[in-house]
Specification:
About 40% of the residues lie in helices and about 20% in strands. The longest helix has 14 residues. The protein is globular.
Amino acid sequence: TTWAKRHPDVPLIRYVDDLLIVVPATKAHRAKELYADLQQIVVAAGLKLKGTLESSVHSLTPDNSIEWLGMAFRRQSNRLDFELPPYRRTMLLDAMADCHFERWPQLRANQ
């Protein structure tokens, strides 16, 4: 892809129309440049990024996480960790329990 050719050392994770750039801590000073380059690529494809640089760029630490696609991401040492936040886990377990009390639970579980 265009991103991989331009920035082989900065992973871009895509899920449908959601994008996440994982900038290593050693390259955090390049966040503005990387955001601008991503914006250029997206605009060239006839799309646009949601939000602004200020609302979209976050510094991840063990104490500071972001939520993306329902998962909490944080940096632990030299790796990126993610987990289902407790309130999401509760929502999921509640929904799974509810589906067993309905007629045709297998259909409700897929909704």
